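ligand=NAP
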Amino acid sequence: MSTPKTIRWGILATGGIAKTFTKDLLVDPQTRGVTNVKHTVVAAASSSSQSRAQDFLKDTGCPADAKAYGSYEELVKDPNIDIIYIATPHSHHYQNAMLCLEAGKNVLCEKAFTVNAAQAKALAEKAKEKDLFLMEAVWTRYFPLSIYVRDLITSGRIGPVVRVTADNGFATDPEEAFGDGKHRLVNPDLAGGALLDLGIYSLTWVFQTLYHTQPEKTRQPPKVLAAVKNYSQTKAADETTTIMLVFPRSPEDGGDAHAVATTSIRVTTTPGGTHDAPSIRISGPKGEIQVFPPAFRPTRTKLILNDGTVEEKHWPHPGPGKGSGWYNGFGNGKNAEGEGHGMFWEADEAATALLEGRKEGKYEGLAESILIMEVMDEVRKQGGLVYPEKIETTKYPTEL
Ligand SMILES: NC(=O)c1ccc[n+]([C@@H]2O[C@H](COP(=O)([O-])OP(=O)(O)OC[C@H]3O[C@@H](n4cnc5c(N)ncnc54)[C@H](OP(=O)(O)O)[C@@H]3O)[C@@H](O)[C@H]2O)c1
Protein backbone atom coordinates (compact mmCIF):
# COMPACT_ATOMS: atom_id res chain seq x y z
CA MET A 1 0.00 0.00 0.00
CA SER A 2 1.42 3.39 -0.99
CA THR A 3 1.78 6.22 1.52
CA PRO A 4 -1.20 8.58 1.52
CA LYS A 5 -0.56 11.98 -0.02
CA THR A 6 -1.30 14.91 2.29
CA ILE A 7 -3.41 17.71 0.83
CA ARG A 8 -2.96 21.12 2.42
CA TRP A 9 -6.19 23.07 2.89
CA GLY A 10 -6.89 26.74 3.41
CA ILE A 11 -10.26 27.64 4.95
CA LEU A 12 -11.94 30.83 3.74
CA ALA A 13 -14.52 32.03 6.34
CA THR A 14 -14.99 31.00 9.93
CA GLY A 15 -18.76 30.51 10.31
CA GLY A 16 -20.94 27.53 11.15
CA ILE A 17 -20.27 25.19 8.24
CA ALA A 18 -16.57 26.11 8.04
CA LYS A 19 -16.22 24.74 11.59
CA THR A 20 -18.11 21.53 10.82
CA PHE A 21 -16.17 20.92 7.60
CA THR A 22 -12.79 21.58 9.19
CA LYS A 23 -13.44 19.25 12.11
CA ASP A 24 -14.48 16.49 9.68
CA LEU A 25 -11.48 17.20 7.48
CA LEU A 26 -9.10 16.47 10.36
CA VAL A 27 -10.58 13.04 11.10
CA ASP A 28 -8.19 10.22 10.14
CA PRO A 29 -9.37 9.06 6.65
CA GLN A 30 -8.62 5.44 7.63
CA THR A 31 -11.72 5.55 9.89
CA ARG A 32 -13.70 5.49 6.62
CA GLY A 33 -11.37 3.16 4.73
CA VAL A 34 -9.65 5.91 2.72
CA THR A 35 -5.95 5.30 2.26
CA ASN A 36 -4.88 7.38 -0.77
CA VAL A 37 -5.14 10.83 0.82
CA LYS A 38 -4.80 12.66 4.13
CA HIS A 39 -5.85 16.21 4.90
CA THR A 40 -4.27 19.00 6.88
CA VAL A 41 -5.21 22.62 7.42
CA VAL A 42 -2.35 25.05 6.88
CA ALA A 43 -4.32 28.31 7.15
CA ALA A 44 -7.70 29.91 7.80
CA ALA A 45 -8.91 33.43 7.14
CA SER A 46 -11.64 35.61 8.58
CA SER A 47 -12.90 38.71 6.79
CA SER A 48 -13.29 40.49 10.11
CA SER A 49 -10.14 39.89 12.15
CA GLN A 50 -7.05 37.77 12.52
CA SER A 51 -8.03 36.86 16.06
CA ARG A 52 -11.29 35.35 14.79
CA ALA A 53 -9.26 33.16 12.43
CA GLN A 54 -6.94 32.25 15.32
CA ASP A 55 -9.91 31.23 17.51
CA PHE A 56 -11.31 29.20 14.62
CA LEU A 57 -8.04 27.25 14.22
CA LYS A 58 -7.97 26.52 17.94
CA ASP A 59 -11.67 25.56 18.20
CA THR A 60 -11.46 23.14 15.29
CA GLY A 61 -8.23 21.45 16.45
CA CYS A 62 -6.03 22.54 13.55
CA PRO A 63 -2.24 22.05 13.73
CA ALA A 64 -0.53 24.62 15.99
CA ASP A 65 1.54 26.00 13.09
CA ALA A 66 -1.50 26.75 10.88
CA LYS A 67 -1.58 30.42 9.90
CA ALA A 68 -4.40 32.81 10.84
CA TYR A 69 -5.18 35.61 8.40
CA GLY A 70 -7.37 38.66 8.93
CA SER A 71 -8.35 38.88 5.26
CA TYR A 72 -9.17 36.54 2.39
CA GLU A 73 -6.67 38.42 0.18
CA GLU A 74 -3.82 37.31 2.46
CA LEU A 75 -5.03 33.70 2.50
CA VAL A 76 -4.99 33.29 -1.28
CA LYS A 77 -1.36 34.43 -1.40
CA ASP A 78 -0.19 31.66 0.95
CA PRO A 79 2.09 29.44 -1.18
CA ASN A 80 1.61 26.40 1.09
CA ILE A 81 -2.06 25.91 0.26
CA ASP A 82 -3.12 23.24 -2.27
CA ILE A 83 -6.86 23.96 -2.17
CA ILE A 84 -9.21 26.48 -0.57
CA TYR A 85 -12.61 25.64 0.90
CA ILE A 86 -15.03 28.58 0.62
CA ALA A 87 -17.72 28.81 3.32
CA THR A 88 -19.12 32.33 3.05
CA PRO A 89 -22.83 33.04 2.35
CA HIS A 90 -23.73 32.19 -1.28
CA SER A 91 -23.97 35.92 -2.14
CA HIS A 92 -20.19 36.02 -1.74
CA HIS A 93 -19.16 32.76 -3.45
CA TYR A 94 -18.59 34.31 -6.87
CA GLN A 95 -16.31 37.08 -5.63
CA ASN A 96 -14.46 34.78 -3.22
CA ALA A 97 -13.99 31.95 -5.72
CA MET A 98 -12.76 34.39 -8.37
CA LEU A 99 -10.26 35.76 -5.84
CA CYS A 100 -8.92 32.25 -5.23
CA LEU A 101 -8.80 31.24 -8.90
CA GLU A 102 -7.12 34.49 -9.95
CA ALA A 103 -4.48 33.76 -7.32
CA GLY A 104 -3.93 30.28 -8.78
CA LYS A 105 -5.69 28.27 -6.07
CA ASN A 106 -7.84 25.17 -6.51
CA VAL A 107 -11.31 25.61 -5.01
CA LEU A 108 -14.02 23.65 -3.23
CA CYS A 109 -16.93 26.09 -2.88
CA GLU A 110 -19.99 25.62 -0.68
CA LYS A 111 -23.48 25.28 -2.14
CA ALA A 112 -25.33 27.03 -3.64
CA PHE A 113 -22.37 27.40 -6.01
CA THR A 114 -23.20 31.00 -6.96
CA VAL A 115 -26.22 33.30 -7.09
CA ASN A 116 -26.92 32.59 -10.78
CA ALA A 117 -25.75 30.54 -13.75
CA ALA A 118 -23.82 33.41 -15.37
CA GLN A 119 -21.55 33.54 -12.31
CA ALA A 120 -21.13 29.76 -12.29
CA LYS A 121 -20.14 29.81 -15.97
CA ALA A 122 -17.64 32.62 -15.41
CA LEU A 123 -16.00 30.63 -12.59
CA ALA A 124 -15.85 27.47 -14.72
CA GLU A 125 -14.21 29.45 -17.52
CA LYS A 126 -11.68 31.00 -15.16
CA ALA A 127 -10.81 27.59 -13.68
CA LYS A 128 -10.31 26.21 -17.19
CA GLU A 129 -8.18 29.17 -18.23
CA LYS A 130 -5.98 28.74 -15.15
CA ASP A 131 -6.02 24.92 -15.30
CA LEU A 132 -7.36 24.69 -11.73
CA PHE A 133 -9.69 22.31 -9.90
CA LEU A 134 -13.13 23.71 -9.10
CA MET A 135 -16.02 21.87 -7.45
CA GLU A 136 -19.33 22.79 -5.83
CA ALA A 137 -19.39 21.35 -2.32
CA VAL A 138 -22.61 19.37 -2.61
CA TRP A 139 -21.44 16.93 0.05
CA THR A 140 -24.53 14.68 -0.20
CA ARG A 141 -23.51 13.52 -3.68
CA TYR A 142 -20.35 11.95 -2.25
CA PHE A 143 -22.03 9.91 0.53
CA PRO A 144 -21.81 6.12 0.13
CA LEU A 145 -25.63 6.26 0.51
CA SER A 146 -25.93 8.39 -2.63
CA ILE A 147 -23.57 6.12 -4.56
CA TYR A 148 -25.74 3.14 -3.52
CA VAL A 149 -28.95 4.88 -4.67
CA ARG A 150 -27.46 5.84 -8.04
CA ASP A 151 -26.15 2.26 -8.49
CA LEU A 152 -29.60 0.86 -7.67
CA ILE A 153 -31.08 3.05 -10.39
CA THR A 154 -28.52 2.20 -13.07
CA SER A 155 -28.73 -1.52 -12.17
CA GLY A 156 -32.40 -1.38 -13.21
CA ARG A 157 -33.80 -2.86 -9.98
CA ILE A 158 -36.81 -0.53 -10.02
CA GLY A 159 -36.88 -0.19 -13.81
CA PRO A 160 -36.55 3.16 -15.57
CA VAL A 161 -37.40 5.88 -13.04
CA VAL A 162 -40.86 7.29 -13.73
CA ARG A 163 -41.08 9.91 -11.02
CA VAL A 164 -39.03 11.45 -8.22
CA THR A 165 -40.35 13.57 -5.37
CA ALA A 166 -37.81 15.36 -3.18
CA ASP A 167 -38.41 17.64 -0.22
CA ASN A 168 -36.07 19.59 2.02
CA GLY A 169 -37.28 22.13 4.52
CA PHE A 170 -37.02 23.54 8.01
CA ALA A 171 -40.05 24.04 10.23
CA THR A 172 -39.07 27.49 11.45
CA ASP A 173 -41.10 30.56 12.23
CA PRO A 174 -38.97 33.05 10.25
CA GLU A 175 -40.62 36.11 11.83
CA GLU A 176 -39.68 34.76 15.25
CA ALA A 177 -36.28 33.25 14.40
CA PHE A 178 -35.01 35.89 11.94
CA GLY A 179 -37.15 38.89 12.93
CA ASP A 180 -34.55 41.53 12.05
CA GLY A 181 -34.18 40.12 8.50
CA LYS A 182 -30.39 39.96 8.78
CA HIS A 183 -29.91 36.19 8.90
CA ARG A 184 -28.56 34.73 5.67
CA LEU A 185 -31.66 32.52 5.29
CA VAL A 186 -33.96 35.51 4.75
CA ASN A 187 -31.60 38.36 3.87
CA PRO A 188 -31.75 39.30 0.14
CA ASP A 189 -28.28 40.89 0.36
CA LEU A 190 -26.93 37.42 1.25
CA ALA A 191 -28.99 35.67 -1.48
CA GLY A 192 -31.32 34.37 1.23
CA GLY A 193 -34.32 32.12 0.86
CA ALA A 194 -35.28 28.47 0.76
CA LEU A 195 -34.41 27.80 -2.89
CA LEU A 196 -30.67 28.50 -2.87
CA ASP A 197 -30.10 27.26 0.66
CA LEU A 198 -32.36 24.21 1.00
CA GLY A 199 -34.01 23.67 -2.38
CA ILE A 200 -30.58 22.93 -3.81
CA TYR A 201 -30.78 19.58 -1.98
CA SER A 202 -34.22 18.74 -3.39
CA LEU A 203 -32.79 19.53 -6.83
CA THR A 204 -29.63 17.55 -6.02
CA TRP A 205 -31.75 14.45 -5.43
CA VAL A 206 -33.78 15.05 -8.57
CA PHE A 207 -30.65 15.56 -10.66
CA GLN A 208 -28.58 12.74 -9.22
CA THR A 209 -31.41 10.28 -9.79
CA LEU A 210 -32.91 11.49 -13.08
CA TYR A 211 -30.07 13.29 -14.82
CA HIS A 212 -26.68 12.10 -13.54
CA THR A 213 -27.72 8.45 -13.94
CA GLN A 214 -28.45 8.94 -17.66
CA PRO A 215 -25.65 8.56 -20.26
CA GLU A 216 -23.70 11.82 -20.51
CA LYS A 217 -24.05 11.95 -24.28
CA THR A 218 -27.84 11.75 -24.42
CA ARG A 219 -29.09 13.42 -21.23
CA GLN A 220 -30.97 16.66 -21.68
CA PRO A 221 -31.94 19.60 -19.46
CA PRO A 222 -35.41 19.43 -17.89
CA LYS A 223 -38.44 21.62 -18.56
CA VAL A 224 -39.33 23.60 -15.45
CA LEU A 225 -42.53 25.01 -13.94
CA ALA A 226 -42.30 26.72 -10.56
CA ALA A 227 -44.31 28.41 -7.83
CA VAL A 228 -42.44 30.72 -5.47
CA LYS A 229 -43.76 32.38 -2.32
CA ASN A 230 -41.52 35.23 -1.24
CA TYR A 231 -40.99 36.06 2.40
CA SER A 232 -43.25 39.00 3.15
CA GLN A 233 -40.96 40.70 5.67
CA THR A 234 -38.01 41.22 3.33
CA LYS A 235 -40.06 41.16 0.07
CA ALA A 236 -37.47 38.83 -1.47
CA ALA A 237 -35.85 35.57 -0.35
CA ASP A 238 -38.40 32.82 -0.95
CA GLU A 239 -39.95 31.06 2.03
CA THR A 240 -41.63 28.23 0.08
CA THR A 241 -40.86 27.05 -3.45
CA THR A 242 -42.30 24.17 -5.49
CA ILE A 243 -40.76 23.02 -8.77
CA MET A 244 -42.11 20.59 -11.33
CA LEU A 245 -39.52 19.17 -13.74
CA VAL A 246 -39.83 17.02 -16.85
CA PHE A 247 -36.66 15.21 -17.99
CA PRO A 248 -36.77 14.21 -21.65
CA ARG A 249 -35.79 10.57 -22.27
CA SER A 250 -36.06 8.36 -25.33
CA PRO A 251 -39.01 5.92 -25.45
CA GLU A 252 -36.51 2.99 -25.21
CA ASP A 253 -35.19 4.42 -21.92
CA GLY A 254 -38.66 4.84 -20.44
CA GLY A 255 -39.78 8.13 -22.02
CA ASP A 256 -40.08 11.44 -20.17
CA ALA A 257 -39.54 11.28 -16.41
CA HIS A 258 -41.23 13.60 -13.91
CA ALA A 259 -40.01 15.19 -10.70
CA VAL A 260 -41.37 17.46 -8.01
CA ALA A 261 -38.82 19.31 -5.88
CA THR A 262 -40.16 21.17 -2.86
CA THR A 263 -38.53 23.36 -0.25
CA SER A 264 -39.55 25.67 2.57
CA ILE A 265 -38.18 27.43 5.58
CA ARG A 266 -41.64 27.23 7.24
CA VAL A 267 -42.53 23.53 6.87
CA THR A 268 -40.57 20.31 6.88
CA THR A 269 -40.99 16.72 5.63
CA THR A 270 -41.41 15.22 9.09
CA PRO A 271 -42.43 17.68 11.82
CA GLY A 272 -41.00 17.00 15.26
CA GLY A 273 -37.86 15.45 13.78
CA THR A 274 -39.41 11.97 13.66
CA HIS A 275 -37.86 11.20 10.25
CA ASP A 276 -40.60 8.57 9.80
CA ALA A 277 -41.56 9.48 6.23
CA PRO A 278 -39.25 9.55 3.22
CA SER A 279 -38.12 12.95 1.96
CA ILE A 280 -37.09 11.37 -1.35
CA ARG A 281 -39.17 8.83 -3.29
CA ILE A 282 -37.73 7.42 -6.51
CA SER A 283 -40.43 5.43 -8.25
CA GLY A 284 -40.12 2.98 -11.11
CA PRO A 285 -42.36 0.31 -12.63
CA LYS A 286 -40.77 -2.43 -10.47
CA GLY A 287 -40.71 -0.56 -7.15
CA GLU A 288 -39.44 2.41 -5.22
CA ILE A 289 -36.33 3.68 -3.43
CA GLN A 290 -37.00 5.79 -0.36
CA VAL A 291 -34.47 8.08 1.33
CA PHE A 292 -35.31 9.34 4.81
CA PRO A 293 -34.72 12.87 6.13
CA PRO A 294 -32.83 15.04 6.36
CA ALA A 295 -32.37 15.18 2.57
CA PHE A 296 -28.95 16.83 2.97
CA ARG A 297 -27.61 14.22 5.43
CA PRO A 298 -29.67 11.06 5.14
CA THR A 299 -28.65 7.89 6.98
CA ARG A 300 -31.49 5.48 6.03
CA THR A 301 -32.79 4.06 2.75
CA LYS A 302 -35.51 1.58 1.89
CA LEU A 303 -35.89 -0.35 -1.35
CA ILE A 304 -39.44 -1.64 -1.78
CA LEU A 305 -40.16 -3.82 -4.79
CA ASN A 306 -43.56 -4.74 -6.20
CA ASP A 307 -42.81 -8.44 -5.50
CA GLY A 308 -42.77 -7.70 -1.75
CA THR A 309 -38.99 -7.44 -1.30
CA VAL A 310 -38.00 -4.80 1.27
CA GLU A 311 -34.35 -3.92 1.82
CA GLU A 312 -33.74 -1.34 4.53
CA LYS A 313 -30.23 0.02 5.05
CA HIS A 314 -28.60 2.28 7.60
CA TRP A 315 -25.66 4.46 6.59
CA PRO A 316 -23.73 5.58 9.67
CA HIS A 317 -21.21 8.40 9.37
CA PRO A 318 -17.87 7.05 10.57
CA GLY A 319 -15.42 8.97 12.71
CA PRO A 320 -13.08 8.56 15.68
CA GLY A 321 -15.79 6.50 17.42
CA LYS A 322 -17.26 6.08 20.89
CA GLY A 323 -14.93 6.88 23.77
CA SER A 324 -12.92 9.34 21.65
CA GLY A 325 -14.40 12.41 23.36
CA TRP A 326 -14.68 13.97 19.88
CA TYR A 327 -17.88 15.60 18.68
CA ASN A 328 -19.02 17.25 15.49
CA GLY A 329 -22.38 18.60 14.27
CA PHE A 330 -23.85 21.75 12.76
CA GLY A 331 -25.36 24.70 14.60
CA ASN A 332 -27.23 23.46 17.67
CA GLY A 333 -27.23 19.88 16.43
CA LYS A 334 -24.60 17.62 17.99
CA ASN A 335 -23.84 14.20 16.54
CA ALA A 336 -23.20 11.18 18.74
CA GLU A 337 -19.74 10.91 20.29
CA GLY A 338 -17.12 10.06 17.67
CA GLU A 339 -19.56 10.28 14.73
CA GLY A 340 -18.41 12.29 11.72
CA HIS A 341 -20.70 14.74 9.97
CA GLY A 342 -20.10 13.32 6.48
CA MET A 343 -18.32 16.30 4.92
CA PHE A 344 -15.05 14.38 4.62
CA TRP A 345 -16.25 12.36 1.63
CA GLU A 346 -16.42 15.43 -0.60
CA ALA A 347 -13.02 16.50 0.73
CA ASP A 348 -11.60 13.05 -0.12
CA GLU A 349 -12.96 13.42 -3.65
CA ALA A 350 -11.46 16.90 -4.08
CA ALA A 351 -8.11 15.65 -2.75
CA THR A 352 -8.21 12.56 -4.98
CA ALA A 353 -8.97 14.74 -8.00
CA LEU A 354 -5.88 16.84 -7.19
CA LEU A 355 -3.80 13.66 -7.00
CA GLU A 356 -5.16 12.37 -10.28
CA GLY A 357 -4.94 15.74 -12.04
CA ARG A 358 -8.72 15.96 -12.55
CA LYS A 359 -10.20 19.45 -12.62
CA GLU A 360 -13.79 18.66 -11.60
CA GLY A 361 -15.73 16.56 -9.09
CA LYS A 362 -16.56 13.01 -10.07
CA TYR A 363 -20.23 12.94 -9.09
CA GLU A 364 -21.16 16.46 -10.15
CA GLY A 365 -19.08 18.17 -12.77
CA LEU A 366 -19.20 21.89 -13.51
CA ALA A 367 -21.63 21.49 -16.41
CA GLU A 368 -24.15 19.90 -14.03
CA SER A 369 -23.61 22.59 -11.36
CA ILE A 370 -24.20 25.22 -14.05
CA LEU A 371 -27.33 23.45 -15.30
CA ILE A 372 -28.77 23.35 -11.78
CA MET A 373 -28.03 27.07 -11.41
CA GLU A 374 -29.88 27.59 -14.72
CA VAL A 375 -32.87 25.72 -13.33
CA MET A 376 -32.79 27.91 -10.21
CA ASP A 377 -32.53 31.03 -12.42
CA GLU A 378 -35.66 29.88 -14.27
CA VAL A 379 -37.49 29.18 -10.99
CA ARG A 380 -36.61 32.65 -9.73
CA LYS A 381 -37.70 34.20 -13.05
CA GLN A 382 -41.07 32.47 -12.90
CA GLY A 383 -41.47 33.42 -9.24
CA GLY A 384 -40.26 37.01 -9.50
CA LEU A 385 -37.38 36.49 -7.07
CA VAL A 386 -34.71 39.13 -7.73
CA TYR A 387 -31.59 39.81 -5.70
CA PRO A 388 -29.62 43.07 -5.51
CA GLU A 389 -27.50 43.71 -8.64
CA LYS A 390 -24.24 43.75 -6.67
CA ILE A 391 -24.64 40.04 -5.83
CA GLU A 392 -26.06 39.04 -9.25
CA THR A 393 -23.22 40.67 -11.22
CA THR A 394 -20.32 38.84 -12.86
CA LYS A 395 -18.21 41.98 -12.53
CA TYR A 396 -15.08 41.14 -10.57
CA PRO A 397 -14.00 42.60 -8.27
CA THR A 398 -17.16 44.06 -6.79
CA GLU A 399 -17.22 45.35 -3.22
CA LEU A 400 -19.96 43.58 -1.22
N1 LIG B 1 -23.02 21.77 3.34
C1 LIG B 1 -23.81 22.08 4.34
O1 LIG B 1 -24.32 21.23 5.05
C2 LIG B 1 -24.07 23.50 4.67
C3 LIG B 1 -24.67 23.82 5.88
C4 LIG B 1 -24.84 25.16 6.17
C5 LIG B 1 -24.44 26.13 5.29
N2 LIG B 1 -23.89 25.77 4.09
C6 LIG B 1 -23.47 26.79 3.13
O2 LIG B 1 -22.27 27.39 3.62
C7 LIG B 1 -22.28 28.79 3.44
C8 LIG B 1 -22.08 29.47 4.79
O3 LIG B 1 -23.12 29.09 5.67
P1 LIG B 1 -22.95 29.17 7.28
O4 LIG B 1 -24.16 28.56 7.86
O5 LIG B 1 -21.63 28.67 7.68
O6 LIG B 1 -23.03 30.73 7.47
P2 LIG B 1 -22.46 31.59 8.70
O7 LIG B 1 -22.43 30.77 9.94
O8 LIG B 1 -23.23 32.85 8.70
O9 LIG B 1 -20.96 31.86 8.30
C9 LIG B 1 -20.61 32.58 7.16
C10 LIG B 1 -19.23 33.17 7.35
O10 LIG B 1 -18.89 33.86 6.16
C11 LIG B 1 -18.09 34.98 6.49
N3 LIG B 1 -18.64 36.19 5.88
C12 LIG B 1 -17.98 36.99 5.02
N4 LIG B 1 -18.74 38.02 4.65
C13 LIG B 1 -19.93 37.87 5.28
C14 LIG B 1 -21.12 38.65 5.31
N5 LIG B 1 -21.26 39.77 4.61
N6 LIG B 1 -22.14 38.22 6.08
C15 LIG B 1 -22.03 37.09 6.78
N7 LIG B 1 -20.91 36.31 6.81
C16 LIG B 1 -19.87 36.72 6.05
C17 LIG B 1 -18.04 35.08 8.01
O11 LIG B 1 -16.80 34.54 8.43
P3 LIG B 1 -15.45 35.44 8.48
O12 LIG B 1 -15.83 36.84 8.16
O13 LIG B 1 -14.92 35.25 9.82
O14 LIG B 1 -14.60 34.89 7.44
C18 LIG B 1 -19.14 34.19 8.47
O15 LIG B 1 -18.86 33.59 9.70
C19 LIG B 1 -23.59 29.10 2.72
O16 LIG B 1 -23.37 29.20 1.35
C20 LIG B 1 -24.47 27.91 3.00
O17 LIG B 1 -25.40 27.62 1.98
C21 LIG B 1 -23.68 24.48 3.79
